[in-house]
Amino acid sequence: MKSFAIAAGALAAAAFAWHAAPSFAETARRVPAPTVDLTAPAGATTATAVFAGGCFWGVQGVFQRVEGVSNALSGYAGGEARTARYNEVGSGRTGHAEAVRISYDPRKVSYGKLLQIYFSVAHDPTELNRQGPDTGPQYRSTVFAENAEQAHIANAYIAQLNQAKTFGKPLATTVEVSKPFYAAEDYHQDYLTLHPNQPYIAINDLPKIDDLKKLFPESYKATPSLVRAAKAS
């Protein structure tokens, strides 16, 4: 569905169908914060986290607007370097998921806070190998932990939310450790900001930005940290 959305020749014809279709935007909720979190190392000013939760356009757009995040890069994780290309990942056979690598200041926002936003507004963690109109393992809900400590925090949080029956059903989110991340093609970067009127974005992803602002006002920033701005600096 997302490949269709970016086909320039078909976009105009698809617009009416998208506007007429029901919204696939996930229902957001502010879930409880994790009871365990990472402690920022003394003197650390930057850290990274990698999350997958469906189409990376919306996930990137959310985290670009979180206070303390300096960059959020769309890409692929879970597979090999040779298949980290959009057309191949879209087959669902590469092992990759569309993912976002988040660079953040641990003095301003914690790993646990990012996880809380991830589970609350960035996607629906109960959907297995799909998000909204997009289906396949490339759209799976996965925390790509960079080390054992991140994996411990993520697994503990998933167990906490499941035990509390926060979503009314078990989370489908998995945790994969030490999987390389590969940046996506340039045309995918900052997609939500650059194409706010594109029907897919308007229907599925812009509501997430509204949810972030409403549910996490203390973490929301109006000016996103864009990839192209980081490259220019």
UniProtKB/TrEMBL annotation:
InterPro entries: Met_Sox_Rdtase_MsrA_dom, Met_Sox_Rdtase_MsrA_sf. It comes from the Bacteria. GO terms for molecular function: peptide-methionine (S)-S-oxide reductase activity. Residues 48-200 form the Peptide methionine sulphoxide reductase MsrA domain. Pfam families: PMSR. NCBIfam families: msrA. Belongs to the MsrA Met sulfoxide reductase family. Has an important function as a repair enzyme for proteins that have been inactivated by oxidation. Catalyzes the reversible oxidation-reduction of methionine sulfoxide in proteins to methionine. This is Peptide methionine sulfoxide reductase MsrA. It comes from Variovorax boronicumulans.
